[in-house]
Write a structure and sequence with these properties.
The structure holds 2 protein chains of 2 kinds.
Chain A (H helix, E strand, L loop, with lengths): L2 H4 L9 H9 L3 E9 L5 E9 L2 E9 L18 E7 L4 H10 L12 E9 L1 H12 L6 H7 L1 E9 L23 H25 L9 H5 L2 E6 L4 H6 L1 H19 L6 H19 L6 H24 L7 H12 L2 H12 L3 H8 L18 H11 L16 E5 L6 E5 L14 H12 L8 H7 L4 H12 L16 H12 L2 E5 L5 E5 L23
Parallel strand pairs in A: 6-7
Antiparallel strand pairs in A: 1-2, 2-3, 3-4, 4-5, 5-6, 7-11, 8-9, 10-11
Chain B lengths: L3 H14 L4 H16 L4 H11 L14 E2 L6 H15 L4 E8 L5 H11 L3 E5 L2 E6 L3 E5 L8 E9 L8 H11 L8 H6 L10
Parallel strand pairs in B: 1-2
Antiparallel strand pairs in B: 2-6, 3-4, 3-6, 4-5
Helix pairs in contact in B: 1-2, 4-5
Classes of the chains: A alpha+beta, B alpha+beta.
Chain lengths: ~550, ~200
């Protein structure tokens, strides 16, 4: 559970983008409304429906000036804003949402809405596609492969934010048992909107000559996303959820490694995915030295792995996957190990599918502190679960360098150096390692037969980590075993951990605090979902 | 309308800003969320209470006894301590707090204790009585005011898990339910599951 390893995770069969498509592939997709003017501004509605359930994406596209277009969370205007509505929206709903959704954080939505987002055009890609299509030509694939999408979202909100429905209202719906399913639905439908909008503008520009975007090109376009630190505290603040994600991954890996026999079809499937996925690695472009070093380590690792696979692996061997895993641990770096682990899951629907629905969490259940337990019990919990953490010296400047805070401007999490910036007094409770150490130092001096309730009467400043320690004792993968305020912290590792579970690809760090990614690149288009297969993520990039 | 998630987060942050520790502030977030879910004025009371303690933070509770007196007691510190110690306090059967500020704020902690103990808990102050029902609901009687800034006495009673109806009322209902059963004739008995066997094989 070290950040460097967690920050090397890749998408896999467990990822939420992929499980969303598997779950919703037999739902009926429809474009219900497409009321855009010749410039592509206006309102559109898309829906998924099955039996009596409907989910509708409402899109509002508007004109913005180039100087208003910003990926940063401080932006106040976007090319398009989106909301996922529970059911079929009435005209009154659309009117209400039109007044609020484009305002995003300063607007209000209701409990009839489930997720909220906004996105900006990748101007160079979008304009190029419009120009090409309107003159009767398909766009330049090279340029599109370089960008990878027509629009980039800068936030996707859910779970009660800005008046959206609380999770408790919808959590019992079977189709959304998998985590972030409605966020994934929103992004998927936004992708379809971007294709429809670009076709519409091209057609309006030159009705006689314009052609539609080739589905093979469209399929290789995803939706971009710019992600900042907002995502980082999420994995600290949702320990049981983090546990369930990692646990399912570990359980899958354990079951696969325990397979005594591997048949030829399974091994060939693995090899096929591996070969196809390399196209995606080769088109993974970034200016980040940090990321380029990791990509090079992955590429070199895969060259070594190919030799090993060819020369030393055969289905005649017992426990072949275990042998492969042991070899990667010994011979590859983090990027390579995690890549092969993701690939090993590919042939095994029967192992992965049952795990997907176990990746959510009823977090409230674990909130109450078992305060009847003894101090000696908590001491043991800390010693068992935070061995390396309680050895950190937080008096050393480097180990206590950063603090996390919420910015007043945008109510977003930020990290800064406590010795250089003001605001450390308003530090958020995200320095878990430091506070656990503080708790441990208090606990060892206490009467061991006292109850936790008695201890907390005198020590409520460590109450938040007492709660946490008891959660970690039940959920071993719920804690990042690292110092989130140390000078060597790479915050984007925290972002990548979460984004890899989403199923994002092409991690492109723009600094150590934010990155760009691509989602749904290669995914079936909306009308192709019913006949799609699950390995779309490895579709060859043209 | 604010979502419960917004209510939780904002109550937590405001409570931290008012001087509570993060751990206590987390408890307050959940407590106010649950008051609002049960239709009780959580935000209103929290706002007023945080305003009251802005200049002077309330005293923490050292211990919970059968009778708890102070010049003024903090509903949050009393509530959290009660929740933490509820398994121990249960044997006292009845507990009293005197001079409690904004007593509505203590309710969600006792409601949670009701869930943990698996027992209903009855709370009385002024002329009101409130039944904590395993944290599934709070049933209130005569709670006329949305805000009570100070209450002289709060009585908390752990209720045993007894029926709310008499034996006779139960028998009457059971008898009516029997009308859904079919009388077994000899023929039905002979063909039923297990017919013809003895239990001695």
């Amino acid at each position: 559970m070290k950040l460097s390893r967690l920050g090397s995770f890749h998408q896999s069969k467990l990822s939420f983008l992929r499980s969303f498509i598997r779950e919703f592939k037999d739902w009926d997709y429809k474009r219900n409304l497409f009321d855009l003017n010749e410039k592509g501004y206006g309102t559109a509605v898309y829906s998924f429906s099955k039996n009596h359930r409907n989910y509708s994406l409402i899109c509002f596209a508007q004109h913005i000036n180039p100087n208003e277009r910003s990926d940063r969370v401080i932006a106040t205007k976007w090319d398009a804003a989106f909301v996922l509505h529970d059911g079929i929206p009435t005209k009154k709903d659309i009117k209400r949402l039109k007044e609020n959704v484009p305002k995003q954080e300063v607007g209000r939505v209701s409990c009839k809405e489930l997720t909220l987002s906004r996105a900006n055009k990748s101007v160079r890609a979008f304009d190029h596609v419009v120009t090409s299509l309107s003159s009767g030509k398909q766009p330049d694939k090279k340029l599109l492969n370089k960008v990878g999408y027509l629009y980039r979202t800068t936030a996707v909100y859910g779970s009660g934010k800005f008046g959206l429905a609380d999770r408790f209202r919808i959590k019992d719906r079977k189709e959304i048992y998998g985590p972030f399913r409605l966020e994934m639905m929103l992004v998927y439908l936004v992708r379809q909107f971007t294709f429809d909008q670009v076709n519409h503008i091209a057609k309006s520009k030159n009705p006689g000559k314009a052609i539609e975007l080739d589905p093979n090109i469209a399929r290789n376009l995803g939706i971009g996303n710019s992600t900042g630190l907002g995502m980082a505290p999420f994995i600290v603040n949702h320990p049981t959820l983090l546990h369930n994600w990692i646990y399912c991954r570990e359980k899958a890996l354990k079951e696969i490694r325990s397979l005594e026999e591997v048949d030829t079809n399974e091994l060939n499937f693995f090899k096929d995915c591996l070969v196809r996925s390399k196209a995606s690695i080769n088109s993974w472009l970034t200016d980040s030295k940090y990321q380029n070093d990791k990509i090079n380590s992955l590429k070199n690792g895969l060259i070594k792995f190919d030799k090993f696979l060819k020369n030393e692996c055969s289905v005649k061997q017992k426990y072949l996957w275990n042998k492969i895993y042991m070899w990667t641990e010994k011979n590859l770096e983090d990027e390579g190990i995690e890549y092969i682990v993701s690939m090993m899951m590919e042939p095994y629907d029967d192992i992965i599918d049952p795990l997907v629905n176990k990746m959510s969490s009823e977090e409230e259940k674990y909130f109450t502190i078992p305060a009847h337990k003894k101090v000696s019990n908590l001491k043991k919990v800390l010693e068992n679960n935070y061995k390396s953490i309680i050895e950190i010296d937080f008096n050393a400047k480097d180990n206590n360098s950063n603090f996390w805070f919420i910015s007043k401007n945008k109510e977003e999490p930020r990290v800064a150096c406590r010795y250089e910036e003001h605001g450390a007094k308003l530090e958020q409770p995200l320095a878990i390692a430091r506070d656990i150490k503080k708790l441990y130092e208090k606990i060892i001096k206490e009467k061991q037969t006292d109850t936790i309730a008695e201890f907390l009467l005198k020590n409520d400043e460590v109450r938040h980590v007492v709660r946490r320690a008891f959660i970690v004792d039940q959920f071993p993968y719920s804690e990042i075993q690292d110092n989130t305020i140390g000078a060597s912290l790479v915050p984007i590792d925290m972002l990548r951990l979460k984004l890899s579970f989403f199923g994002a690809v092409k991690f492109d760090p723009r600094s150590d605090k934010w990155l760009r990614i691509n989602m749904y690149q290669g995914a079936p288009l909306s009308h192709e979902m019913k006949t799609s297969n699950d390995t779309w993520v490895y579709n060859v990039i043209n | 309308m604010q979502s419960l998630s917004e209510i939780d987060t904002t109550s937590k942050r405001a409570s931290k800003a008012a001087g509570f520790s993060w751990g206590i502030a987390e408890e307050i977030g959940k407590a106010i969320r649950s008051l609002e879910l049960f239709g009780l004025p959580g935000i209103k009371n929290l706002n007023l209470y945080l305003n009251k303690i802005e200049k002077k933070h309330p005293k923490k509770v050292n211990k919970i006894d059968k009778e708890n007196k102070n010049k003024e007691l903090c509903p949050i510190y009393c509530g959290v301590a009660f929740l933490d110690q509820c398994k121990k306090l249960e044997i006292l059967k009845n507990i009293k707090f005197y001079n409690v500020n904004y007593p509505i704020l203590i309710l969600p902690f006792i409601s949670k204790a009701s869930e943990i103990l698996g027992k209903k808990i009855l709370i009385k102050f002024n002329n009101s009585s409130l039944l904590m029902n395993f944290n599934k609901s709070i049933l209130s009687q005569n709670l006329e005011k949305q805000v009570i800034d100070l209450v002289e006495e709060i009585s908390i009673e752990f209720l045993e898990n007894n029926n709310s109806f008499s034996e006779q009322e139960w028998k009457k209902l059971y008898k009516l339910s029997e009308k859904t059963f079919v009388d077994e004739t000899d023929s039905l008995k002979a063909k039923g599951a297990g017919a013809g066997l003895t239990d001695n094989d």
